[in-house]
Amino acid sequence: MSDGIWAVIAIVIVLIVIVTLYRMVRIVPQQRMDIVERLGRYNRTLDPGFHLLVPFFDRVREKVDMREAVQSFPPQPVITSDNLVVSIDTVLYYRVVDPVRAVYEIASFLQAIEQLTVTTLRNVIGSMDLEKALTSRDEINQHLSSVLDETTGRWGIKVTRVEIKAIEPPPSIRDSMEKQMRAERDRRAAILNAEGVKQSQILTADGDRQGAILRAQGEREARILQAEGQAKAIQTVFNAVHAADPDPKVLAYQYLQALPQIANGSANKMWIIPAEMTKALEGISGALTGLMPGTTGVMAPSEIDDTPREAIDEALAAAKAAAEETEKESIGLPKLTAGEPVSPASLLDSQNQAERQH
Q1: What is d(CA 281, CA 287) in angstroms, rounded to the nearest whole number?
Q2: I want to staple 256 with a disulfide (CB 3.0 to 4.6 A). Which of 19, 25, 270, 344 is the partner?
Q3: Quick check: pTM over 0.85?
Q4: What is the pLDDT of residue 83?
């Protein structure tokens, strides 16, 4: 019986030793501070590492995390200056810089920070209208950070950053805002479309103007070149005729050959016979008098042989070119119905009859 009692006593002693050793040894991890109290009063702060405590006299009051923490607060209703109720979500970034003050200066610093954030938000948002509150988040964040940092400094808390996650206006206000934004987008699209059409019309008109200018310049240069070519051709014919010095009889004969071609033109409505044509016909009639029946005059062979053959050919070519120019110039005359072609024989007969009458 006595052996069993001693065994129980030994077991109890071993348990007490184990519990005492467990309570005496304290290992603090990195980025954590332990607040130790002895007999109910603050004794010391345990840094990260191995520590020994006095059993049954020392106890750890609080284990304070020294890392930066994030605390998200539930949405809070806030009234703006234009009497609209908006719901604001906030998130807080903080860290403990003095664990002793964080434990003994305030009962619950997280709850205190939450209430301080709500009151500060209501103060800041209450001085703004809805539009300014939606566009001034940076200003609100800076104001909250300065107020919270100043207040929580005596609690051993450092507020590093305050962010507003969302500002939710009432559903009716959201619908109105969406309609307003949709109308604004439609207005901008209409303005951009009108500007595009205007620019397109300006470019099109400018292109037409430049095209008309270039076409007019081209036509002017073409007419100038055509006129210069015609002037050069006339000058060449004139020089050739004067250089060849053709016989009037040859020119009269070329006139007679060209007259039917001028009369047969589809655009020729009036046939004008030059005044020189009568003199040429007189020369032709005089030359052909000896060849006509009933006449005795004969052209001397010496008169035919005296004229160079090359000069006659050049004169014929020049006269033909002059006739073509006359036909071109007659295009601009009033349109009259062309008469029947007149043959050289009828012209000679009429000329002989006029001479006999005289």
Answers
A1: 10
A2: 344
A3: no
A4: 83
